[in-house]
């Protein structure tokens, strides 16, 4: 190799070595004085931010993005280590929701029940003891009608009813977890009577004591079904307390063979009325029945309950039937009869299964037997039919669970 080439390679090596040295020095300087200063500067920023951060901790329920939220108790804002200064709640389309802030400023909740299948947004602000602010936001969707169930109940809140009136709840969707739902319902009486629920099917749950309610007592129904999963993905939304009063003890006994009805109050006979029950071809059900509806006048069309000329049972359509009181879902009534001769009552059974009492058209004469009985009866009174040629009415045909033994009744409880 010539000297000139050797000197060229040495020069190149020196240049590369210089680059490598320079690169190595740059890497080493990362932990040098400049980087250390940068770290201190970031620590100072973080420390300053920490000093400015509020100690107040806001919690909004339901959590952000929740679905199937309760319409009763789910929405709530709470704060710890501080007090709430402002809470706003709106629907997804901007409609304001009124709420109440607790006196100590620690919590907030909407005043009323929320709507189903609705998006709600909550924005909350709070301050800690040093006046430092905190903010939180959340959005959730309440349970939809398709994903919720309700129970339609009878009797009505505040009503006075007869001693035979059960608490009957009909759910708008089939219940598969009967235990969970029944556990969310309580029925109690001021008389101290044991009250038990019985499921007739997946949508009907009735409650009653062993014997009739004690006259003058108060019965309380509590529905605590909010958030209870009654079926897969289907939740309860009701949170309600209902009370009703039991009136005097009136039980009326219809003897289909003797064609009379004996009315008793508190165990004493107050009136005996001649009646006309179901004919031999269409006898009246036997059993204990409860008056579930009262109509000053109503229309009775036999076609609605299966009586047509085609089946040989005899078609009928009677307008303005006076003083009619329902005893069964299938169409059994005790009612006034203005179209039959007076001689029928107490002497012949001629109806299509109802119990008829003498009356006049227009339901205007209070002296008529049907009018007297109507005016002296209330929803929940018991009418007992005996000595008829028909079978005993089914317990679920109307509010007639009294036709089931106490042992069988309790066997239908899911709790």
UniProtKB/TrEMBL annotation:
One record GO biological process: regulation of cell shape
Keyword terms, alphabetized: Acyltransferase, Cell membrane, Cell shape, Cell wall biogenesis/degradation, Lipoprotein, Membrane, Palmitate, Peptidoglycan synthesis, Signal, Transferase
Signal peptide: 1-30
CDD domains named among the record's database cross-references: LDT_IgD_like_2, YkuD_like
GO cellular component: extracellular region
Pfam families the UniProt entry points to: Big_10, YkuD
InterPro entries reported in the protein's UniProt record: Big_10 (IPR041280), LD-transpeptidase (IPR050979), LD_TPept_cat_dom (IPR005490), TAT_signal (IPR006311), Transpep_catalytic_dom (IPR038063)
GO molecular function annotations of the record: acyltransferase activity; peptidoglycan L,D-transpeptidase activity
Active site: 335, 354
Keyword Transferase carried by entry: yes
Domain spans labelled L,D-TPase catalytic: 250-386
Biological pathway: Glycan biosynthesis; Cell wall biogenesis; peptidoglycan biosynthesis
PANTHER family linked: L,D-TRANSPEPTIDASE, L,D-TRANSPEPTIDASE YCIB-RELATED
Protein name: Lipoprotein-anchoring transpeptidase ErfK/SrfK
Organism this protein belongs to: Streptomyces wuyuanensis
């Amino acid at each position: 190799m010539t000297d000139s080439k050797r000197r060229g390679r040495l020069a190149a090596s020196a240049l590369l070595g210089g680059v490598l040295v320079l690169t190595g020095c740059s890497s080493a300087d990362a932990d040098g004085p400049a980087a250390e200063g940068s770290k201190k500067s970031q620590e100072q920023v973080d420390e300053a931010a920490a000093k400015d951060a509020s100690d107040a901790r806001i919690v909004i329920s339901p959590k952000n993005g929740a679905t199937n939220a309760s319409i009763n108790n789910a929405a709530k804002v709470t704060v710890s280590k501080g007090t709430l200064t402002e809470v706003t709640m709106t629907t997804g389309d901007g409609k304001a929701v009124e709420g109440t802030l607790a006196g100590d400023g620690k919590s907030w909740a909407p005043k009323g029940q929320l709507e189903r299948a609705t998006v709600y947004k909550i924005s909350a602000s709070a301050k800690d003891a040093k006046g430092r602010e905190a903010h939180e936001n959340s959005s959730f969707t309440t349970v939809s009608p398709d994903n919720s169930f309700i129970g339609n109940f009878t009797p009505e809140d505040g009503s006075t009813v007869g001693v035979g009136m059960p608490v009957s709840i009909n759910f708008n969707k089939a219940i598969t977890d009967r235990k969970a739902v029944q556990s969310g319902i309580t029925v109690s009486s001021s008389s101290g009577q044991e009250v038990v629920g019985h499921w007739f099917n997946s949508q009907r749950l009735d409650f009653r004591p062993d014997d009739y309610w004690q006259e003058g007592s108060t019965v309380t129904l509590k529905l605590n079904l909010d958030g209870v999963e009654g079926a897969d993905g289907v939740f309860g939304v009701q949170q309600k307390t209902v009370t009703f009063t039991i009136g005097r003890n009136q039980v009326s006994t219809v003897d289909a063979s003797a064609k009379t009805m004996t009315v008793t109050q508190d165990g004493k006979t107050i009136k005996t009325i001649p009646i006309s029950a179901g004919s031999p071809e269409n006898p009246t059900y036997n059993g204990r029945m409860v008056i579930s509806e009262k109509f000053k006048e109503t229309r009775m069309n036999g076609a609605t309950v299966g009586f047509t000329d085609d089946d040989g049972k005899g078609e009928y359509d009677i307008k303005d039937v006076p003083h009619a009181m329902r005893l069964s879902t299938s169409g059994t009534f005790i009612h006034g009869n203005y179209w039959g001769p007076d001689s029928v009552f107490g002497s012949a059974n001629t109806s299509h299964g109802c119990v008829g009492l003498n009356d006049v058209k227009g339901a205007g004469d209070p002296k008529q037997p049907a009018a007297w009985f109507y005016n002296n009866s209330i929803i929940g009174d018991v009418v007992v039919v005996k000595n008829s040629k028909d079978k005993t009415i089914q317990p679920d045909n109307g509010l007639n669970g009294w036709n089931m033994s106490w042992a069988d009744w309790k066997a239908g409880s899911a709790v």
